[in-house]
């Protein structure tokens, strides 16, 4: 996972509320088992409408999405986060998120930023022709007009995002400690190793029969 410390650039000034995961990525796109290519299907029903914000050249490639309340509700499909990431979105700013979507976003390197509606309204106005910056170091969202909105993020999730660590990365980061522990167990309690364990179970089982 790519480390995220700062996300800066144009933002989609959408603001739509109660956007569920079926809107983010329709069900017929879920047949894939890869994370790539889902950006083509992201917001498919919205993009079918003339003049939609996601096909507006002014916001092409924007790394930030400004959404409304209850973003990511509905099913638990992780494909929703995959689709956003594949279309280049690294941060979503909204008044609230579905808990499952928020977790999926974090696991896929997307920063879920919660701000009050007043801040969302201001950012939507600014984003129409200016950039927005999300900074995980200072935990702020800023604009060229000196707007500065602070947000909160779980300390563990913040660390993982900034260091680019998903579950696999977290495990690999502790490879030395895991190996040392396994070696200590094999040396001090050999009967607990996999090989000895199966042998012991076999012996004990035979004694009981």
What is the count of helical runs?
9
- Uncertain spans: 197-209
How much helical structure, as a percent, in the residues?
A: 25-40%
Q: How large a portion of the residues is in β-strands, by DSSP E?
A: 5-15%
Secondary structure category: alpha/beta
User: Strand order, biggest sheet?
Assistant: 1-6-7-8
Distance between the termini: 52 Å
Major beta sheet summary: 4 strands, antiparallel
Average pLDDT metric: 89
Order of secondary-structure elements:
EEHHEHEHEHEEEHHHH
What gyration radius follows from the Cα positions, in whole Å?
23 Å
Shape: globular
Overall strand count: 8
Write up what this structure looks like.
The protein has 209 residues and is of the alpha/beta class. 39% of the residues lie in helices and 13% in strands. Helix 4 links the parallel strand 4 and strand 5. It has a four-stranded antiparallel sheet with strand order 1-6-7-8. Strands 2-3-4-5 form a four-stranded parallel sheet. The chain is globular.
Topology of helices and strands:
Blueprint: E1 6-9, E2 11-13, H1 21-24, H2 44-47, E3 64-66, H3 79-86, E4 91-94, H4 99-107, E5 111-114, H5 117-127, E6 132-135, E7 140-142, E8 148-150, H6 155-163, H7 167-173, H8 175-188, H9 194-208
Parallel strand pairs: 2-3, 3-4, 4-5
Antiparallel strand pairs: 1-6, 6-7, 7-8
Q: How would you summarize what this structure contains?
A:
With 209 residues, the protein is of the alpha/beta class. Helix content is 39%, strand content 13%.
């Amino acid at each position: 996972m790519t480390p995220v410390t700062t996300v800066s650039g144009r933002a989609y000034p959408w603001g739509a509320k109660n956007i569920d995961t079926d809107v983010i990525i329709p069900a017929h796109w879920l047949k894939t088992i890869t994370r790539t290519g889902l950006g083509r299907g992201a917001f498919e029903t919205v993009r079918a409408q003339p003049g939609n914000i996601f096909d507006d050249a002014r916001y092409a490639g924007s790394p930030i999405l400004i959404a409304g309340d209850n973003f990511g509700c509905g099913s638990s499909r992780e494909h929703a986060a995959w689709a956003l990431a594949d279309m280049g979105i690294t941060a979503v700013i909204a008044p609230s998120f579905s808990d499952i979507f928020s977790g999926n976003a974090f696991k896929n390197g997307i920063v879920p930023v919660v701000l009050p509606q007043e801040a969302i309204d201001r950012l939507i106005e600014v984003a129409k022709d200016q950039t927005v910056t999300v900074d995980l170091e200072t935990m702020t969202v800023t604009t060229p007009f000196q707007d500065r909105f602070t947000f909160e993020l779980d300390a563990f999730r913040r660390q993982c995002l900034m260091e680019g660590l998903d579950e696999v990365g977290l495990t690999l980061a502790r490879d030395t400690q895991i190996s040392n522990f396994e070696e200590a167990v094999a040396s001090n309690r050999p009967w607990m190793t996999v090989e000895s364990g199966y042998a012991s179970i076999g012996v004990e089982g035979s004694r009981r029969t």
